[in-house]
Each structure stands twice: as structure tokens, then as C-alpha cells.
Amino acid sequence: MTEFAGELRRLRDQRGLSYRQLAALSTVSSSQISDLEKGQRRPTREIAAALDRALDARGRLVTRLRTPAPDDVEGEFEALELAQRAAASDVSDTILDRLDGIADRMAMSYATTPPAELLPKVRRHLRYIDQLLAGRTTLQQHRRLLVAGGWLSLLRATLHIDLQQRATAAAHLSTAAALADQAEHPEIAAWCLETQAWDHLTRGGHRRAVELSRHAQAIAPASGSAIVQATAQEGRAWARLGDQGAMRDALGRVERMAEHRPTPEHPEHHYQYDPGKMHAYTATTLSWAGDPAAERVAREVLAELEAEGARPRRIASARLDLGLALLSGPQGRPDEAAAEARTAIESGRIVPSNWWRVDELVGGVLDSGAPEGRELSERAEAARPGVAD
Questions:
Q1: pLDDT tens-digit profile of 257-271?
Q2: All residues at 6 or more sequence positions from 213 whose CB lies less than 8 Å from its CB, including other chains
């Protein structure tokens, strides 16, 4: 039994709580609590913090998490440079293989790593690729460097969007698009357009988001992931525009494409479409459209994500979807919507570019006249991340 598991069991027994009772006091399911105590599930910081609050443990569970050793970025580059010097040419296939792996690893880290923490690592690798592009390469090696640089530039732009550093994001999106053009890589080019569509969607440019999403679909390879993501983005934009027919058409196309795609080896990879995401996209789209089915779908998505327990950022977004569905549903339950918003805010997993959704939900609770509104508004203001460009 791990130190965390032992402390969790001791605290729960000390307070005389069953798994079900502790689950009711926290955001963690009873099955997850059981697995955590048996050492069969690795606790995240968010889960530990939620259980600390429920057990009034004053951070004792968080302090018992095993903190992984930070990536030794300099050591990684020392290894790459040594392999490069050992090669007969300026760039070896070994280095290119490693860079491909690094680009994938960064994209997989996106789902769980705060943008400000991931950004320096992406920046460092892009500088290294820039150095290699200045050296002697074959045409094939040059293209592989362009592709790796394209993916990392795209990810860097996405991180800057998340941090609401939009001028910097636009510059790196242009770089990613230019590298995609030089490498003749339509998948990266389509993702650049999809990323722009998302940025416009978060800023209220819904018509422009539709245009960019459709452009992305037009150039994206049919077998790739960008075409599915861009179609989902189109559906979200139509939901914001209030066009139910166009929204449902887009959701139908996403569903048809998703049902024929296998689950990727790494579903957390930001640029590899996971069919499981379709449910989450549907929940968001329906909640934005005020559809009566939104609450049911949002609850299903939240239950799925909590059972998985590995994607805290998506869990926070799912809570915002559920809150909006509760607020706009036929019964109008602002108290429950406020509770979901509060839990999402306290998770600390809402990136700055997604904060407009918090504002929308908090504003709806305030407009309803619910007594929770003022406290929720104050809590949101206190937690609001700073913005810099």
C-alpha cells in the first residue's frame, strides 16, 4: 500500500465515512476512492485536493503524492547533440526520430500540463529545430524537420491562445502554416485553421469560426484527425449562432466519421482524434444551444471522465457544460449550476482562454437572482487568471 493510500484509509476511518458518504462530500466517485485505497489507481493532485477538502485534512493527502522528477530538458539536449556529433552528417535519422517522439510527447502532455509550464519546453525544442534547419540536410531530412517544427509551432500557438497571448499566438500560427506549406503537409495546415476557428469562437467571432472550420475540412486529409475536429468546431459555432439545423448536421457528420475510427494508442494526444471525445463535444454543443438533452449528455460525459480520472482539464470543462445545461434547462436550477461552476473554478484547471465560459455561467446565475450568485461571482473574480500579451 502506498503512503497516500494508507493515509486516505486512516482519514476516512477516523471520520467514520463509507466510500459512498465520502464520494457525496467530494467530487470523487466511490469506486475511485476504493481503488485509491487499494493502490490500484494513481491519485492526481486534483483528486487529492478534493479529498483533502472533504476530509478537512489540511493538505495531508496532497503532501503524500509522489512528485515525479521534472524533465531534464538540458540533459535531453546533451544526448541529442552527442548523437548529432557522432553522425556523419549534420542531422542523423536518430535525431529526427527523437524529435518526432518529442513532438508527440509534448502533444500528449498538453491535456494535463498547465500551459505556462509546457510552453518553455516547447520553445526550447523549437530553437533546437531552428539550429538544425540551418545546417546541411538532405531533402528528406529537411522535410522531417519542417514537419516536427510545424507540429511544435502549432502547439506553441495553442498554448499562447490558452494564455490569451493572442499576438504571439498569431505569429506562431503563421509559422506553423508556412512550415506546413513548405513540407506539403495538409494535416498540419488544417489544424492551423481549426485552431484559428477555436480562437475566434472563444472571442465571439462565430461566423468566422464557421468559415475557418469549413476551410479546414476542405483541405484536411479524409483519414486524418483535423477533419473531425474541424467539423465538431463548426457544430459549436452553429450552436452559438442559434442555427439548430446546421448544428445537428455538423454533429451528425462528426458521429459518422467517429464511428469508423479506432481509438488511437494515445487518446490524450491533442492532434489525434479520439472517438471518445465525440460525447464531450456533443455535450458542449447542446449546452450552448440550450437543447433539452444537454443535461443528460453532460452528466454522462462527466461520469465517464471521472471514472477515467486522468483528464482534469476536460472534467472542469464538462462541469461548465453541465452548469450551463442546468441553468438553461426547462426547470432552471441555478443553485445546482452554481455548485458545478464553483467546483470547476476551484479545480484550478480552467485555462485563461476558456474563462469566458465561466463568465457566461456566473452571469446566468446572477441574472437568475439565485442567492448563490454573489458569492460565486466573488469566487470567480478571486480565481480569475491574469492575462498578458
A1: 887 788 788 888 899
A2: 193, 194, 197, 230, 231, 233, 234, 237
